[in-house]
C-alpha cells in the first residue's frame, strides 16, 4: 500500500489531469511501483525507466560518458540530465529522475554519504532539484525518497495548474 503522501499526490495529479513519468536509478522502479498502486494510477502514471547501472544511463538515455565520469552516476548533475532526457522518451506533464546512494559501494564520500538522494523534476520548462540525506536501511532510504518525491510533486502541482 502506498504511503498517505503518495496517495495524496496521486489524487492531486488526477484532480488536475496531470501525468508523470519517472527515470529511476537508486529506487530501481519502486517509485513507479508505488504510484502504480494508487487508485488513480491509470490516469496519472505514464511509465518509467530503470537505469540502475551507469552503463544504462549512458547507452539508453545517452548521458555523456564524460559527465558520468566527472560528476558520478549518483549526482545532482546526472540526475538533472536523466530527467531532461526522459522528456524525449515518455510524454508526460512531469518528468522526474532519482539517483542516489542507498548502500555502500557507490560514489559515497564524506560530503556525499550513503543515504544521499538526488531528485530532479522537469515540468513545462521549469526545473527543480532536491538533494536530501536520509538514514536507515536501503529500503527505508528508498521509501523516504519516494515520500520526498511526492512532497516535491505536491509543491509543484498548484504552480503547474496555474499555467494551464
From TrEMBL:
Residues 7-149 form the CinA C-terminal domain. SUPFAM superfamilies: CinA-like. NCBIfam families: PncC_domain (TIGR00199). This is CinA family protein. The lineage of its organism: Bacteria, Pseudomonadati, Bacteroidota, Cytophagia, Cytophagales.
Amino acid at each position: 500500500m502506498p504511503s498517505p503522501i503518495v496517495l495524496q499526490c496521486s489524487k492531486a495529479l488526477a484532480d488536475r489531469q496531470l501525468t508523470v513519468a519517472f527515470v529511476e536509478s537508486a529506487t530501481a522502479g519502486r517509485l513507479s511501483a508505488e504510484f502504480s498502486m494508487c487508485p488513480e494510477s491509470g490516469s496519472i502514471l505514464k511509465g518509467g525507466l530503470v537505469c540502475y547501472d551507469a552503463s544504462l544511463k549512458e547507452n539508453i538515455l545517452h548521458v555523456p560518458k564524460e559527465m558520468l565520469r566527472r560528476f558520478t552516476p549518483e549526482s545532482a548533475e546526472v540526475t538533472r540530465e536523466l530527467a531532461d532526457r526522459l522528456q524525449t522518451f515518455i510524454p508526460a506533464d512531469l518528468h522526474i529522475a532519482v539517483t542516489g546512494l542507498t548502500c555502500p559501494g557507490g560514489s559515497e564520500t564524506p560530503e556525499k554519504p550513503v543515504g544521499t538522494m538526488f531528485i530532479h523534476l522537469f515540468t513545462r520548462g521549469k526545473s527543480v532539484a532536491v538533494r536530501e540525506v536520509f538514514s536507515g536501511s536501503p529500503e527505508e532510504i528508498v521509501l523516504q525518497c519516494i515520500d520526498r518525491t511526492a512532497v516535491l510533486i505536491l509543491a509543484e502541482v498548484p504552480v503547474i495548474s496555474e499555467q494551464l
